[in-house]
Specification:
With about 220 residues, the protein is an all-alpha fold. The protein has a domain at about 5-135. The protein is built from 6 helices and no strands. Helix 1 runs parallel beside helix 4, helix 3 (about 75-90) runs parallel beside helix 5 and helix 5 (about 140-160) runs antiparallel to helix 6 (about 185-215). Residues about 165-180 have low confidence and may be disordered. It is a multi-pass membrane protein.
């Protein structure tokens, strides 16, 4: 198992990738709006439409025209990013134990910036509240990631049980080259145990939810 490659890739997705996403999500739209306006008016020569508004409504109408040109907020993109982050943590969390703490730090900042992003009117149109019963289908995606993580995460834990020294060079992916020598039988037993434990835990939680809503 190439531990150096796994460490570097996991660090990239947990830290570097989220920093890049921050820049693209919050910084790039502020740069693109003036750039598009400059290209439209200066290079293409398209002149802006001049309208005569009454002084009482001019400010309000300008705000409306600006808001109409903004894109609508897609909450699916936010869930997609959280599901991707959750998947990396569930599958490869044992690679770097500080990964969940770093992700929590980024999530807190993201939630605060998203709140400002939706409120200042420079990124999206004002969102229209809509009542929903659940976050479906993202709840199924998170459940699937948790189930897969109950299989992959224990195996990664076994590889890293004795630490990451010495790192394995590229190409050594066999189980006997891991940090701890584990047999294929032990891997199958571990997978069988953790899958059954996950199913049992999920059934217990599901039963408690049914009791909470009044089903017997």
């Amino acid at each position: 198992m190439n531990q150096e490659r796994l460490n570097s890739q996991y660090f990239y997705f947990i830290v570097t990738n989220q920093v890049i996403q921050f820049a693209m999500k919050y910084g790039l739209p502020l740069v693109m709006a003036p750039a598009i306006k400059f290209v439209t008016e200066k290079i293409k020569g398209d002149k802006p439409v001049v309208t005569k508004d009454s002084p009482e409504e001019k400010e309000w109408l300008e705000t409306v025209r600006t808001t109409v040109q903004l894109p609508q907020h897609d909450v699916g993109n936010d869930f997609r990013g959280l599901a991707l982050q959750y998947g990396y943590l569930m599958l490869f969390g044992p690679v770097w134990t500080l990964g969940p703490l770093v992700s929590l730090f980024f999530n807190v900042i993201t939630f605060k910036l998203d709140e400002l992003k939706l409120a200042n009117g420079k990124y999206f149109r004002p969102p229209v509240p809509k009542r929903v019963d659940s976050i479906h289908p993202w709840d199924l995606a998170l459940l699937l990631l948790t189930w897969i993580g109950s299989i992959i995460s224990p195996i990664v834990t076994a590889f890293y049980r004795h630490g990451t020294k010495p790192p394995k060079p590229l190409g050594q992916f066999a189980l006997d080259k891991a940090s701890v020598n584990i047999s294929s039988t032990l891997v199958l037993v571990a997978i069988f145990f953790f899958v059954r434990a996950f199913i049992f835990h999920h059934l217990c939680v599901w039963n408690q939810n049914l009791k909470h809503v009044g089903f017997r």
